[in-house]
Amino acid sequence: MVCRCPSCRRVRYVFLCPDMRVWRVARSNMAATLTCGRAANEASSYLYVYGPDGLDPALLKLSAHIIVEPITYIFNLSRSSNDLPDVWKSVHVLPLLKGGDPSILDNYRPISKLSVLAKVLESLINTQLKGFLQNHNILSPVKSGFRAKHSTITAAVKVLDDIICDLHNKMSFAALFIDLSKAFETVDHCILFKRLRDIGLGTKAVDWFRNYLANRTQTVAVDGHISASLGVRGGVPQGSILGLVLFTIYINTIASVADNGKIHLYADDTVLYCSAPTLAQAYQSLQQSFNLLQATFIELRLVLNAGKTKVMQFTKSRTVPSSTTLAISTLDGKCVENVSSYKYLGLWIDEKLTFKVHIDKLVRKLRVKLGFYFRNKSCFTLQARRKLISATFLPVFDYGDVIYMHAASTTLHTLDTVYHGALRFIINAKSRTHHCRLYEVTGFSSLGLHRWFHWHIFIYKAISGDLPAILIC
């Protein structure tokens, strides 16, 4: 029931409590929820195309104080009846060309557009569901995706720390980077509902999620044309807020499968690794753990992509067996490719942990972009050039810099060269302008200071308990 608090006059609304043993009333300002930038901006971030409900997020923001009570009533009705409007369960899929031949469907990335109000409701439910998972300590500590205090950087730091510690102990190390084919689309609903019951959700909560996943449809929208709708029989909706946490719950138990090795998961990015006195023993333990993990994938109806699954070895030994001697294979007999570098969570990891591959790829990517900027610099004002570099260059330099900050100075110098070029673009300086002058005029600091600043923040988070427990202990 919708009511107003007599003290603050804010609207009270009821929404899904994760355990569903008690339907609790949560007090909040629904207008603030509707006007929060995240839900609205996500719904209109791709070419301003509306979702299946045809509602303009800007209209909802402007009229939030007027429509808050009707929307609250609809949300409460969805909770009490365990039902959602059909339009909230439909998706517009916009194919975005990633590159390559436009006639090849695999070269397109599907962008899902959902109804705006459906995402607002999902956000409310997601907040309670995550709180339930955290309060009851349900999620495995080796899962880093979509959790408070966790990020791709903390996940990569954990894996790399395990590798470095074992190498310092004169152990050999083998890591298997596992790729799943269409992981979110192959989630089995019956297994998912059982997992929801197993973690303690009540019957009403599971029934609501059952209706949320049932009878979903999707259409393809291209150049203003929309295809006929097609039913979705399985999986969790991509682009949704709840889909991510539901998938996390779905694969939560696979962390306990790795008997002789360690495992770390970030969404569907899984790395399995083992250490041993010799590389041959590490590969043997890795194969045993991989077999158990594959059996779990089969139980969960998840499909292993053997072609994109890679294995990498780390060792300080000067005599390394050939890749034909050491091999990892799938249950159906396919050999997993041995690689010398792999892109894990946006960071290229090489077998010597020099990060030269990662930095070289960053430099090549940024040089192409910087060349385009220089060729069109007459189109930008000074303020625009500053914002352009701040938005497109600095985040690339900053991502993962605490991980590769101790790379060789000659390797890091190539980053400085591109960075100084970007600063010259801002102030339209000559190529021989000294970097101290660039820092002085632009007000930007050096990349070395950036890295040390981010490292100090990382240490502060560790001291204050704002990092995952697996990194602090």
UniProtKB/TrEMBL annotation:
Q: Please list the residue ranges annotated as the Reverse transcriptase domain.
A: 77-349
Alphabetized InterPro entries for the sequence: DNA/RNA_pol_sf, RT_dom
Pfam short name (any one): RVT_1
Query: Matching PANTHER family, A to Z?
Result: REVERSE TRANSCRIPTASE DOMAIN-CONTAINING PROTEIN
| Record's protein name | Reverse transcriptase domain-containing protein
Specify the species: Cyprinus carpio
